[in-house]
Amino acid sequence: MEFVKDKRLNFIISMAIGLVILFYVLSKLQLLFIYFGTALMLAYFFDPLYIYLIHKRIPSALAIIIVFGIIIALLILTIFFLIPSVINQLN
Q: How far is residue 77's CA from residue 61's CA, in Å, rounded to a whole number?
């Protein structure tokens, strides 16, 4: 597909159109990348605990439940200590 006769100008125009399309698609998938990034970080940080529990002969399903319980407990503790601090700063 050639827009103009000059190959260099044709390449520049094609690259510009491609970059615009790429940035548009990436902007639409931004939330998806955030979810995948968060999931990858959680898996990276909690995998050693899961492996440790498996080596201690704890069944896989129970090990997953324990890891999820720890994640939920950490989230609850973070919210529990963060909300009063934010409310105090807003007042």
A: 24
